[in-house]
Amino acid sequence: MADTPSLLYFGRDPRVPILNELGDGSRLDVNSTTTTTTTATMYTFKEHMFIQLYQAIQRCYKIHDEQHERYKAYYDQKATEIPLKVRDRVYIMKPNLGRNKSRALTPGYVGPL
């Protein structure tokens, strides 16, 4: 089941005009003007909507965790540990240059520390 951005953001799929004409039976029509819509039906619709949204969010979390583990495994394969000892002199990379500073004219490292 694919979750649309509209479902994740608004909690429901968008209403497409053709579905209103054909009468999509998979969803309850909350814009119905008939008097048969009762409070119980609206409560059931809201409950269904919240359950559907919760399940979609849980699927997103699961996919995110799987991707995180995949990227971590890839990074760990290529990462190497650098053995440092006490009193070793090292340079520390400084990626934040600040505002209105040229990358070419400012040192990218601090040190030796």
Automatic annotation (TrEMBL):
This is Uncharacterized protein. It comes from the Eukaryota. It comes from Bugula neritina (Brown bryozoan).
